[in-house]
Structure formats: C-alpha cells, structure tokens
Amino acid sequence: MSLALVTMSHSPLLDYANPPAEVTEAVQGAFTAARAFTADYDPTLVVSFAPDHYNGFFHDLMPPFCIGYQALGVGDYGTAQGPLDVPAARAEELAQWVAGHDVDVAISRRMEVDHGAVQPLEILFGAIDAVPTVPVFVNGVARPFVSMRRIRRLGEAIGSYLAALEDERVLVIGSGGLSHDPPVPQWATADDRTRAMLLNGRHPTAAARDARQQRVIDTAAAFAAGTAAIRDLNPAWDRALMATLASGDLTPVDAMTPERMAEDAGNSSHEVRTWIAAFAALGAAGPYDVTYQFYQPVREYIAGFGVMTARTRP
Fold this sequence. Notes:
Radius of gyration: 18 Å
Strand content: 15-25%
Shape: globular
CATH superfamily: LigB-like
Distance between the termini: 9 Å
C-alpha cells in the first residue's frame, strides 16, 4: 500500500490581497504542481490534518486532536460552505484504531471546519466534496499545546491504519503555517468581549464575521507596508523545518517547544503541527521521497508560504 502527501500553507488572504504579479504567479504555479501530483495519484480517500481559527473549535471545549465523522465548511473568507463527503464508517474505524494505539483523540459527529481545512480541498480538487475525506483537527491556536512527540505519534498511528488499506489510494494533507503571526486573539491578552467570542463564537452574524475578517485584511495590508505590529516571517526557520520533513527523520521536531516556536516564527507557527502529523503518517507507511518543494515568504499573505508533495517508495 502506498501513500501520497501534500502539505501546503493556507491563507484567508488569497483572494483579498495583491502581492506583486511574480509572487502570485509563483504561488499559483506551486498550486498547479500540487494539483498535477494529486491528479496523477488519483486518491480514493483523503485524510486532512488541519487547524481551526476559532470558527469550529472554541475554549468551551478545545481538544488537542479531533477526528470528524461528519464535517461542514463554515464558509469564511469566501470558501465553500456546506458538507464535506466524510465516510463515517471509515472515520469511526480510524478513531478506534488511533485510540487503540494509545493516542487519546476526540471525535465529532458535527465538526465545523474553516478555510484551514477547506482551502486545500478547493485548490486540489475544485470542491470540498469531490473525494471522500476524513478531517482531523489539530489544535494550533489555544494553549496548552501537546508536545511535538505527541503530534508525531498521532500521525504515526493514523499512518499505520492507512498503510493497511489495500483497497484505497490515500492522500494525506497537512494544511497550515509556516512562520506567521496574524492577528488571531490570545486568551491571555484578550478583553472581555473577545474572550466571549473565544469561548463560544459559533455562527456569527454576517456583519460580525465581516468585521473580524476585515481586521485580518487590514493587518495584512499594513504588514506588507511594514507598519503592522506583528512578528516578522522567518524564512530560515521555515526552510529548516521543510528540510527536516524531507529527510524522513522527524525526531528532531521533538525538541520544538511552543514558547520557542512563537518567539521564532509567530503565534500561528503552531499550525505546522499539521505538516508534522501528515509526514509522520506518510513515514509510518514506509520510506518516502519528496517530489516537489516550493517556498516563498509572502508578506501580503502574512505567511511563509510552502508547498510539498511526497510519496512512499514502491
């Protein structure tokens, strides 16, 4: 059984910012390469590791990991709204397998997912229900964060299950990162109104969602102009992480700590947990080769923007 992988940065600003033409062309070229890789592999099942940005998961209950038996796109930043094609029986079997391999995981029979999970599906397949997809939420915004060793073990447990599926061609997606520090609120510094949203901000009014999104769009414009008070991108950090993932030996990530990650690469660098889980899943099926890499820091997207594709060896 072979597995394939696509990891990619996402950005809610893809349709709301205007990088230089050559930057847009380069990013779109990376998406084209990832689409071609995916079309050639022709997956019958997708397992998507993705974070959330206080659209589906909140501080009233924030698990480190959650497997969805059903999932709905919330439609933020113009992304698709509505149900993903989640094979519930397969998702339930996966969750039981993971729990049986000593990794504690939550489940959701009504998961709500935002652009973090939806954008890669739209980019790779043109729709969120084109291929059966099991969504795996990985917390990348709210403390406390589990160790990177636990992230790796989650991926390994899922990968060991996927490697045994002789009747499926499985594509593993990791969505998020790389270095970036967008204006996602932090509980420790939030005012009472913002804490109310962080506690349970589900299903906001259209006006409330637009106002929240506009703050991010405005911050991106200021960051591109060099006037935003957020942490800068860190291309060296991004490239070093991509090199570790490509090497096949993920054990160096165990030394990464939340405090150092935030300091070196911004508060939202925690999203790279999805990349690590995805590569750990791929590695659990055997040695792999990275077939494509792209990286460019894009201030207009507030992201060190990366794309990688890989496959296990025959």
